[in-house]
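Bug: token stream looks shifted between consecutive jobs. Job 1:
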Amino acid sequence: MQPDIESPAVPGLVSVVTAAYNMGGYIAETLDSVLGQDYPHVESIVVDDGSTDDTQRVLERYAADPRVRVVRQANAGQTVAKNRGLREARGEFIAFCDADDTWRADKLSRQLPRFADPGVGVVYSDIECVDGQGRPLPYYDIPHHEGRVTAELLIDNFVPFPTAVARASVLRAAGGFDESLTMSIDYDLW
């Protein structure tokens, strides 16, 4: 049975949603970075959105790991896949790590203490973009805003999607991703 979007969250658990479509060349590195977090309470939910490459074969490597759940569906697009991951998530917190992104091992342990303030709904961080050989690429400095940031978000989406961790209750209250959109889905959600 698929967990309902309103199912109670497991306290302290971070559900990491990864939508994947034909990402067999990258998905292992992504999952290794998620599972390699120094924060121990992580579940990884991979939504394979109808891949036709070797994504499924690569994901089979993780079949024995109880922290990993793979959900397969017909190709429906990233918003549908991410919303499916939201419905599957059991954690108090939800993060997104797309199938071509990786995290530093201390990402979650550095961000989760910010949620000690019950008024905090989303925590984000800086990002480093790299080329195909892992060399850093030039990137602009991300503005850091705290508190009510709606006005600042109307000017610029300063929340790098793969860095965001959110309370599951906040994402669910917002209704998840607008499935009619194909671009700027995170900007719309924030």
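Job 2, same session, no restart:
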Amino acid sequence: MLNHLLDNSNGNLRVGIVGAGNIASGYDFPSSKLITTHSRAIESRDGVKIIGFYDLNPKASSLACRKWGGTAYYSLANLLADAPDIVFVCVPDQAHYAVLIEILKYPPRLVICEKPLTSNYIDSYNIINSYREAGIGLWTNYQRRLDPTVSDLANKYRSRSIGEFLSGTIWHTKGIKHNGSHGIDLVRFILGEPSALTAQYRRYDYRADDPSVFGTLEYNNGAIAILPGDERAYSIFELDLLFESGRYRFHHSGMRLTKQTPDDDPVFPGYKELITEDTISTGFVGSLGVLVDCCLEWFIDNRNIAICDSSNFLQTQLIC
């Protein structure tokens, strides 16, 4: 299917991975049931192949290659000189900008960067413009948007089949930009843009330039409370939304969705309570595979997958 687009004799898109940590290669193994790394997502799809890893720690690159195959590169320039079609950027947040600048010297066709794109809004804005001018696709991995349970809820809200939005909460740790941005981006995806925002308190549980934040996102008919936990005690990521028709709570890092709908109160006549409850597994742990599917679609007909494009996330970073 892809052979007519590629110069490779085997018809595979060649993928280089920058960074060999947990999200790149560490969380799972070849043929794991769940897909929790980019490497496993790539391995699970036909038409893509890892050519290798580069990490500042050569031992990490070597271990990743032993697990997933490919070459352990000892410089970023060497990896890029091998002409990958796609580059995944999985280094710490503060290193994104420098890596993305370096990639421009050896341009692949598509770059997928872990969130946030950079640690600074102006840097992200400039990087997006530079990649657009160079004709390179640039995506940011806000993978929860690719979860079909999230898309389903967004569609229900836009069609007004679940009524008006009432209020909600985002629980997060490990920085408003690093982890809290997932919740803010999901709220934007489901509800649209907030009309106002405030921040009252910061907790430094991750990095000095990225506190976890207590604040609010205001909408015309409701508000979202942004609440910080503390990563030093434990991790938490939850999104809890109340609509006229009921409550939708994404929990267990977004891997579970509990829906509650109102019913007549069995004790106090004339009242309704959120009594009926249904909990399902979401598609979060498969969303990295969906991301690779989007890559394949992009290469097939060169259309922009707007849901993944980095320019789609600039407003999320501005809010953070």
